[in-house]
Amino acid sequence: MRDAMLGLAAVLMMGWAALPARAQQAPPADGIRTEAPVVVQGEQPGPGMWIVRKGDHDLYLLGTLSPLPAKMQWQAVPLQRVLANAQEVIRMRGVQIDADVGFFRGLLLLPKLLGARDNPDGKTLREVVSPASYERWQGLKARYIGNDGGVEKRRPLFAAQELYTAAMKKNGLDTRDPVWPVVEKAIKEHHPTVTVVKETIVIKDPKPLLQEWSKTTLDDLACFDNTLARIETDLDAMRARANAWATGDIPALRALPPAYQWEACSAAVTEAGIGKRLGFGDARAKLRAKWLAAAEAALEKNAVSFAALPLNDLLGANGYLAALQAKGYAVIAPDDDGGEEE
């Protein structure tokens, strides 16, 4: 429960034109594609790691991705070697909620735990989304979820999440994180220092919040429509990204368009009155500053350190790698021959 994740990691977008021709084809008129099961299986090496360097001190960074091939067995030997020599592991735990119903991660998990995932006033999806969106939903639901009447009562945000998870499973993809179990095992074996980076929002009394949730209409229609569109059109690219991560094909990860990001879904809660009142936006900014401070401290004192971050947080003009490079650290990409990241 406390490790429940919201967001899905993205990769650096280098252009739609780089997609294979099959992935660029427009979806059929009914909005549903039929794809061959081409996700890789068996033993796979996974991606290389970025290195942030200060003198003879190295911080190894692994970019994570979701979804990944469900039947992949990740052979994480390079990571295990790094972890065997690491003096410190930086673990990103994100923004967490501390309430008397338990300690858990992510604002979106709060209504789930409090039983507030359904639409206010007993409304159904048919009543709160547009007729066109509901028609698309029905087709995708029939294909991936089936006859589940309960999901029809969900707020669009949570209905979209259930559909997404079901669609990934039907397409040979898995949203679980394979990285942390490997890291956790190495921590138990080698005992590095573990620095946990998190920002905690404390809710002393969740009952009034539950009452507010039960009456609040979220601005989550964009989340719903975006998720439907991704499932209709992006499955080929999802498999290509998953395969590229599994096989360690960094150029392909760079060339493919970004993985689905949940900004519209997250904003439906974080930009609502509840999210703003709890200070979720400020918490995310504080979290970024804390992680960068932890990375700099690790580079100052350790010969070898390790951290993992979603690729969408790691890469790009506003990513953590760019921030560290702007501070004067050398950044070496896994597909470089010793050169610096551009």
Automatic annotation (TrEMBL):
It holds the Pfam family TraB_PrgY_gumN. Residues 1-23 form the signal peptide. CDD domains: GumN. Keywords: Signal. InterPro entries: TraB/PrgY/GumN_fam. It comes from the Bacteria. This is TraB family protein. It comes from Thermomonas haemolytica.
